[in-house]
Amino acid sequence: MKISLNSILIGVSDIRKAVPFYEAVFGVKFTEVRPPFSCFTMNDIEFNVEEISPERPSGWSQKYLGTAKPIGLEVENADEFLKLVVTNGGKIISPASDKSWGWREAEFSDPDGNTFIIEQKIEN
């Protein structure tokens, strides 16, 4: 049986405020914005950016809105990327630091508090 990654869900409080952040910071263009649903594609993976809706089960926002996302995003320059995050309303959770395994890593959050990891390969 073949299994492939289809989509990643990010909960937000207001899609119309989230779209400009993700477009500016992730360098993507949303292919659909139809509240409570919106989406963009990065590296052939669909990201569903969604608000709470009556179709979602009880407790949905506690699980998907303002939580840590176990996603590592590779960037060319961690420090420049973090400046872009802050300029667009996000926050630095942990500043960029070099790791012994050969990567420079940091954590940031979007305006809703969804937290992501960024990684920059350190050239030797």
SSE inventory with pairings:
Blueprint lengths: L6 E5 L3 H12 L5 E3 L2 E6 L2 E6 L9 H5 L3 E7 L3 H10 L3 E8 L4 E7 L5 E7 L3
Description of the structure:
The protein is of the alpha/beta class and 124 residues long. The protein has a single domain (7-52, 66-121), classed as 2,3-Dihydroxybiphenyl 1,2-Dioxygenase, domain 1, CATH 3.10.180.10. The protein contains 3 helices and 8 strands, in the order E-H-E-E-E-H-E-H-E-E-E. The strands form 2 sheets. It has a 4-stranded mixed sheet with strand order 1-4-3-2. A 4-stranded mixed sheet has the order 5-8-7-6, covered by helices on one side. Strand 2 (32-34) and strand 3 form a beta hairpin. The radius of gyration is 15 Å and the shape is globular.
Considering the chains and any ligands shown, give keywords for the structure.
alpha/beta, 124 residues, 4-stranded mixed sheet
The ordered string of helix (H) and strand (E) elements is: EHEEEHEHEEE
Total DSSP helices: 3
Distance between the termini: 40 Å
CATH fold call: 2,3-Dihydroxybiphenyl 1,2-Dioxygenase, domain 1
Strands of the largest sheet, in order across it? 1-4-3-2
Oligomeric nature of the chains: single chain
CATH superfamily: 2,3-Dihydroxybiphenyl 1,2-Dioxygenase, domain 1
Work out the strand percent: 35-45%
**What's the overall geometry?**
globular
Under the CATH scheme, which class?
A: Alpha Beta
The SS-based structural class is alpha/beta
Number of domains: 1
Computed Rg = 15 Å
Residue stretches low in confidence (pLDDT < 50, at least 5 long) are none
Which CATH architecture is right? Roll
The residue fraction in helices comes out at: 10-25%
